[in-house]
Amino acid sequence: MIMTARKFISAIAVVIGVGSVSAQQWGDYTLIAPKNSTSATLIDTNNTTFHTWSGMTGQTAYSNYVLPGGTLLRTVKTTNSTFSGGGMHGRVQKVSYSGTLLWDYTYSTSSYCSHHDICCLPNGNVLLIAYESKSGSVATAAGSNYNGTLWPDHIVEVQPTGTTTGTIVWEWHLWDHLCQDDNPNSGNYVTSVNDHPELYDINAVTITAQTKDFWHMNGIDYNPMLDQIVVSAHNTNEFYVIDHSTTTAEAAGHTGGRGGRGGDFLYRWGNPTRYGESGTHFNVLHDAHWIPQDCPYAGNISAFHNKGISATISSVDHIAPPYAGFNYSYTPNTAYAPSTTTSQIACVSGTTNEGNAQQLPNGNTLYCLALSGNIVEVNSAGTTLWSYTASGGVSHAYRYSACQITNAAPAIPTISSAGNVLTASAATTYQWYVDGVLIPGATSQYYTATGSGAYCVRVTDSNGCWLSYSSLFDHVLITDISAFDQSFRFSVYPNPSSGIVNLSGDILSGGNFSVEVYDNAGRLVFTSVNEMVLDLSGLENGIYTLNIRTEGAAPISKQIYITK
Q1: How confident is the model at residue 18 (pLDDT cuts 50, 70, 90)?
Q2: Is pTM, for the whole model, over 0.70?
Q3: DSSP character at residue 363
Q4: Residues 195, 251: one domain?
Q5: Strand partners, 396
Q6: Does 122 sit behind a cis peptide bond, omega within 30 degrees of 0 on the bond before it?
Q7: Could you list the residue range(s) of the whole structural domain that residue 542 is in?
Q8: Which stretches does DSSP call E strand in 204-348?
Q9: What helix, strand, coil percent values describe the chain, rounded to 5?
Q10: Number of domains in the chain
Q11: HSE-up of 505 (CA within 13 Å, CB side)?
């Protein structure tokens, strides 16, 4: 199933509700999936059951989502002899609307176990957050002042490969991004943790056997326009932004990726005391996520603040990150901006643990007070428009339109280029972005780039139910128009090709040229020097850009198509 990121999959259809205030409501059905249950339900705004998934294999653990077309994505409890505590699951399933089990994947051993939240990516892969076990001796070698077993978090991206199987195609480990200024004999020693907010100080607080899960990650989301991940952590009272454009090897280090920092934090917010600065904003947080593009405050990061108003009143907080391309503005030895929340919605009551919020296209907010099972929709002024109390705890709840339940998402768009003209694959509506920023008025299938950058296009199909985003497309602005005039001087054949490509033309006759081949995401995937026959059989099917470079001239580009 083609899928956009879990909270970027908001709908744009306008739905008229029922009742005296329901014209202000948004959507048709709310997903209710009580913990420890084998069922999940969609209820309408009259609190009447519309659809039920019943008799599912395994008990619901934490978060659940409806994917385009009505498939349920759920976390499922398993038994693990090493790891325990709230939010544990170790298993994730996809269940069709009719109840057929489509995918049942386990990520649970004595060495690791997934827990809390999950996130479905545009390509159908699923992000899992998980604990891994580090012995006391390993912890001490990493400079920890606590010499017992630790459970640091990590993230894996799983590509479903069969009914019960999956391949891990990307991973990130907190353990690779720790620092400390206590033990100079440790490899992660720094002279001052204040100088390294891109890393986490393993000794930021005193760790005990009860707090060996010293991060306790509980929420995860993906931003397709930035290719970044945001995670929230209960025990640190912060959220963190991580670069997903890295390879797994880069994610283990400190360089690489669009942000240039490898797997180090690009941004963090909520508790500057953890990196030696002053100020504390969150008092228990959950469910950090980007606000979708079709909602007010789009691009802000939202978090459910359990004790946001008081010890008994929760809030939904919005933070406006200081975006700077694929990085974030930061003044050394200060707290990350902004100094306070951008906006805050007070809940009707509170939940001391768990909970989530969802921003809706008409400006409303749906939030879940998990421990009481109270789910509330409010308008932008905070006025309650709808509420429902579920029996049993409900960690997350989400609202969907009937259109979303019925229809699949549009195909993930692709971008091709001819000079500075970028072309999106066919869709019904378009919106272009560059470096994560919306380009006003760029709403056609074609866009003429006026600068270099990473471009993305957002599309809908004729149903208008779901938003889909392309992969980022790197474009270097071509200012030497003679490059276009020269393009007739070489040819590429056959095109389309099964992989073996021939070059010819007088521009190559001097035998002093180089070839670069880029995929549709702008990644360099092949190079050669002075070769007239190129073996591209190792590339996947798709559209590629072939650049010819000759001495003293601008590169000349042609698109090639690989079909095997």
Answers
A1: very low
A2: yes
A3: S
A4: yes
A5: none
A6: no
A7: 482-562
A8: 217-223, 228-233, 238-243, 267-269, 285-290, 301-305, 315-319, 323-324, 327-328, 343-346
A9: 10, 40, 50
A10: 3
A11: 19
